[in-house]
Specification:
Two copies of one chain form a homodimer.
Chain A lengths: L1 E7 L16 E7 L8 E10 L4 H4 L20 E8 L12 E4 L6 E5 L3 E3 L17 H14 L6 E4 L5 H12 L4 E6 L2 H10 L4 E4 L5 H8 L4 E6 L3 H9 L1 E9 L18 H5 L3 E4 L9 H13 L7 E4 L6 H9 L6 E5 L14
Parallel strand pairs in A: 8-9, 8-11, 9-10, 11-12, 12-13, 14-15
Antiparallel strand pairs in A: 1-2, 3-4, 3-6, 3-15, 4-5, 5-7
Helix pairs in contact in A: 2-3, 2-8
Chain lengths: ~350, ~350
Amino acid sequence: MSYNQIIYTTAPSPAIDPSLTSGTFRLRTVPRPENVPARKVLVRVHYLSLDPAMRQWLTAKRSYIEPVKIGDVMRGQSIAQVVAVGSELRSKFEVGDWVTAYSGWQEYAVLGENAVEKVVIPPGGRPTDALSVLGMTGLTAYFGMLEVGQPRAGDTVVVSGAAGATGMVAGQIAKIKGAKRVVGLAGGRDKCDFLVKELGFDAAIDYKAPDWRKQLKEATPEYIDVYFDNVGGDILDACLARAARDSRFVICGAISQYNAAKPQGPTSFMNVISQRVTMKGFIVFDFAKQYPTALRDLASWLSQGKLKRKEHITPGGLRSAPKALVDLYGGANTGKMMIEVAPVSEALGAKSKL
Amino acid sequence: MSYNQIIYTTAPSPAIDPSLTSGTFRLRTVPRPENVPARKVLVRVHYLSLDPAMRQWLTAKRSYIEPVKIGDVMRGQSIAQVVAVGSELRSKFEVGDWVTAYSGWQEYAVLGENAVEKVVIPPGGRPTDALSVLGMTGLTAYFGMLEVGQPRAGDTVVVSGAAGATGMVAGQIAKIKGAKRVVGLAGGRDKCDFLVKELGFDAAIDYKAPDWRKQLKEATPEYIDVYFDNVGGDILDACLARAARDSRFVICGAISQYNAAKPQGPTSFMNVISQRVTMKGFIVFDFAKQYPTALRDLASWLSQGKLKRKEHITPGGLRSAPKALVDLYGGANTGKMMIEVAPVSEALGAKSKL
């Protein structure tokens, strides 16, 4: 028996090339191990998470995490099922367990116990939530909005990349916490309608509309108290120009700049001084000790219907991952972008557990 | 009797034109009032403060302070002497008192009591200190470094515009508070020598040297924990590229960008996220309630010789102000830039009080 892996082979220059024969990645087929080492589990990957941060993992610069090495399996998190357990881990895992796994881009993975975590799904939840609203993107939205942004009653909150997995949760949390006005920026009319009609944003601006700057101004008559930035570039700049006195700018991501050969900095920077803006970058890992509290809040809001989520699941198996990642930077998704590596119907007689 | 004023007449586009016949400002001669209104004082200006922020006061954009109106006397602070007191203020002021005054650019000014403050000079101080180390620039350095930057023992602190009135105090305060390493950026060898030899900076980098980026890297082997920014532009960008984890970037000024038609934003902005940088703008006025404590500290450090200062006083009277302001943006000064409007020798029989 063998399975497929996707190997990082060539540094992007600067955009990712999704071709599996001549691009950034290559497909490799390897044999499935006959025996699992004593302190490992063998998992089968079902859903692979695609995240904007991935482009940064391919840049050999000082960052919050080591870059992926050329020749390694591409890094990534997944929802997977345990299919074999090493002799010393049998008190902790059993065949059929569903886990979130730091599996990387491959169909199977042999992992130590620190690389997997059993999925606990709350009422109203589903397993893929553990990759999104109850996983890294939900936690990123939670800590970014509440610990960094700190919206107060009466605040105007603006979120960019608002129809993405993190942005949609961030905006809803601001609303749950009593922000007066939550405005989202997203690409295209459909995404904007979704934000206002489905998620309850007070306004949404299509940044592809020629007059988006004017719309942003009109949508923020009392300026911007909290800006949750997922995109950087022109939109960050336009929001800085609308910064309210003592505003908080949560620098979560800069998807518009990840593929730029020469990134663009915010030119309305003088407002940082005149309006006493605090711009703060953060990485969700720094809040690891508070994950349990955050997950309790997120699960409770989800169960109560206060927090809605959406998934964008690409079929086609592992080999569709590079193209889907490129599409993510193009804004193809509304909600959490995932690859279906293996459907749940193929699960090891344990479908009911998922 | 008459006196001169400098009137703001034409918006800079974008640089200030110092000509008094065809430039940004015009000279106007007005009669000295015969009688001072009951709740006013008449002051004679001796030293006029020139500050980088002045360029921003001439931009008709939302800012921390209303712009100067075309046709008004140019705004500015000075050291002045009271030469006449209105009938209802005689219990508070007497002729000969030295005051800091929101006089604007003129030789005499009729001011309400809120626009003047009596100068109190501590041991080892001199009256012009009330415009610099014991005035706005000293306070700006104090709150920016201690409240925003919060240097800790062991930190590497970098200050740009380090030979300017604010920068030199900011760097020395970091040293007083136990920073491990204080590095200044300034323009030219003389300023750099001054920082290291006179003020005790650990290193100084001449940003006009072709290899300044390399020097900055070498001078910050453990990266930058606190960056006190007076200049913006390329230097801010280079410091962001050297940001340490959880570093604080104090955004105090951006003198390199004030005259730019299209300001330049920091392109190493991704480091804000990966290194969890906090960038915070501030305005000294926000700390007004804490001025007394700050002035006590600053005066005490000055008296103990822990804090050194330097002045750059331009002779030539009021009409030299526009040219000196342009020179300030060119970096002509080491230390606090002031105009001698009237020498102390001409003071109203009260020289000994100054």
